[in-house]
Design a protein that fits this description.
The protein is 33% helix and 18% strand. With 353 residues, it is α/β, with parallel strands linked by helices. It starts with 10 loop residues before the first helix and ends with a helix. Mean pLDDT is 94; it is low at 347-353. The structure holds S-adenosyl-L-homocysteine.
């Protein structure tokens, strides 16, 4: 039988394990520092523990890791990792270098069950939720591939899957990412979670953590949004906006609204006007994402003058707007292009068998 992965225990669960074995509780901090700060891959490395304790822990637990199945480098410096999970499923993470930051975009589910009409991950359906260890291990493994002093500075939960549909494991992973005494130690201000808009979980997350929130909006009306995002039939725009208005967002922070621009679907001047009205009075910024095409998609990217017009209208209404440049689109690493192994590749593989 496979030994349990030590990284799937919470800090307090491991403390309890130690105390039950007549060990001092502070050893939990030492072991956790080895795992998450010194990134040990074996118990033998943990030299401030007695040999007998190391042996005991090694008898009871494994230190499992994500396997890097493939790494693709984009001409713009973006790197896409395909990770293989223990049950042979695969997930992707994307490393995005910018002037002063190094951002990792991580996955929280294998596949996704929300069925957004324009998204490549949706075509897979939901395979399964990731465990907390599989979520934060993406950071540990990507960090290992960097040379010298380079470190991941920012994390976005914007890869495959819907983080708030895997709430418990995502929050456990956030604990490991943010803890400064034994964890990876990334400040919550440098972490952003993106959601399709699960209202009760948004409220819970904002009560329980200090990370930044991004909401995938993509339409100014229920009519358009329900066509693009089936989740809108469960939580309407009115419910979502009411929730956003009531969130306790600290003064220096803003909610990010993401809006993928689809030619002829949600990119008109009237759409921009309605969007501005919808967002009236919410401290926010808008990220416009011109659609990134992927095999099997029926949508098109708008003309750049339509993108500019859309941006101008929002700007005119006093909104802060960014147009997101596609990063890594030559390696299918841009927003909405993550599929693990693509369907085409899988079919190809089946053909070869
Ligand atoms: N499930 C979460 C996390 C995924 S974030 C969410 O939906 O927010 C990925 C972002 O990329 C989302 O805003 C998503 O709507 C957007 N996206 C999906 N497909 C896209 C595509 N083909 N082109 C551009 N953006 C896309």
């Amino acid at each position: 039988m496979m030994k349990p992965n030590i990284k799937d225990l919470s800090f307090t669960e491991f403390e309890t394990y130690l105390v039950e074995r007549k060990q001092p509780a502070y050893r939990a901090g030492q072991v956790w520092q080895w795992l998450y700060q010194k990134r040990a891959v074996s118990f033998a490395e943990m030299t401030n523990l007695s040999v007998s304790l190391r042996e005991q822990i090694a008898k009871d637990f494994a230190i499992s890791r994500l396997a890097i199945e493939r790494k693709a480098d984009s001409s713009d410096g973006t790197v896409k990792f395909l990770f293989r999970l223990a049950d042979d499923r695969s997930i992707e993470s994307v490393l995005i270098p910018e002037a002063k930051r190094l951002t990792l975009c991580i996955s929280t589910q294998a596949g996704c069950g929300f069925g957004c009409a324009f998204c490549a991950t949706a075509l897979l359906g939901l395979k399964r939720n990731l465990r907390a260890s599989e979520i934060f291990d993406q950071i540990l493994e990507a960090n290992r591939t960097l040379d010298g002093d380079r470190r991941i500075t920012h994390v976005v939960l914007m890869g495959m899957g819907e983080p708030l549909a895997n709430y418990g494991q995502t929050v456990r992973a956030l604990d490991v990412m943010t803890d400064t005494s034994w964890g990876i130690g990334i400040s919550p201000r440098r972490i952003t979670l993106s959601t399709v808009g699960l209202v009760p979980q948004i409220q819970k997350l904002m009560d329980e953590t200090n990370i930044n929130l991004a909401i995938s909006l993509h339409a100014p009306t229920d009519e358009i949004r329900s066509k693009l995002m089936p989740v809108n039939r469960k939580y309407s725009l009115r419910q979502l906006m009411e929730c956003c208005r009531a969130l306790p967002i600290p003064r220096r922070k803003r909610i990010t609204f993401e809006y993928v621009l689809l030619r002829g679907v949600n990119d008109s001047a009237a759409d921009a006007q309605q969007l501005a009205e919808l967002l009236l009075g919410i401290r926010c910024k808008v990220n416009l994402i011109p659609f990134n095409p992927h095999p099997g998609s029926e949508f098109e990217r708008p003309e750049s003058r339509d993108v500019e017009q859309f941006q101008q209208i929002l700007y005119f209404h006093g909104l802060q707007v960014n147009v997101r440049r596609p990063r890594g689109d030559d390696i299918q690493a841009a927003c909405g292009q993550l599929q693990g192994e693509t369907i085409a590749e899988r079919e190809g593989a089946a053909g070869r068998c």
